[in-house]
Amino acid sequence: MNDQRRDRKDKHLTKMRCNEELRAKKRQIHVILKKCTSDQTEEDLQLLKESKSLVELVLTRKQRLELNKERIKEVEDEPQVLTDKCHLLSKLIRESKGMVVYTGAGISTSAQIPDYRVYDFLFLCITSTDEMGRVRTKTIKKASRVIIEKYYTRLTIDFHTNKRICEEIAIIPSKRLRNQIAGFVTHLMRRIQRAPIRGISIKLQEEERERRDNYVPDVSAIDMDVIEVDPDSFLMLKEMAMDKISGLQQTNPTVPFRGSVRP
Prior knowledge:
Protein name: Small ribosomal subunit protein eS17
Largest sheet: 2 strands, parallel
Helix content: 55-70%
GO molecular function, one term: structural constituent of ribosome
Family: Belongs to the eukaryotic ribosomal protein eS17 family.
Number of helices: 10
CATH topology of the domain at 138-213: Diphtheria Toxin Repressor, domain 2
Structural class: mainly alpha
Number of strands: 2
Keywords: Ribonucleoprotein, Ribosomal protein
CATH class of the domain at 138-213: Mainly Alpha
Organism: Medioppia subpectinata
Low-confidence stretches: 118-133
Mean pLDDT: 77
Distance between the termini: 58 Å
Order of helices and strands: HHHHHHHHHEHE
């Protein structure tokens, strides 16, 4: 087992050394290629001759970097070239069934504003399968609090009811935004019933607190045929002059049996 582990470790170290030597050789070739032909020594020429594949790799990378630099430059085409491009664009628009327009790709690059040529922008992320999480922006939260303060008496703790109310009382540009606002309204309505919430009228929350304190259930919790209480509770009720409640019955508590009886 130790021998196998030692072999794997030796292979890994050997691979790391080879990669480091390869990177150092690439850097050396890159420095040589930056020199003028007259400044290159015989050793430099010999190294270039022995490492043709690495030279091609370095040159390819250099060309790719230069091409990327050229792409980000802003140039103004000749009038005839612009006319030809406009004719080609109009032809493609007429023949296409659908069209997607990206804006901000002109002077924005010179101003260091990312556009569709940036590797992580919308153009390359549009095919991504990542789903956006549950985002609640400042607009959604502020709109939800305003709706609650103005239409608290109409709102409920049901999402679909609140969604319909939001659609009636406000002009919301999209269904998604409407659903997000209605969802946060429902969330806040449930929280208000439990405790105060920051950002909502104190008067409204005081009324809700008073409603909770003055709540009287339709059916009393002691409205039962038989109410069994232990002796201590019965004495406490007797001191409070509440021992005449109908159905009140004193019972002796029984200790549950645990374990086994030893002989």
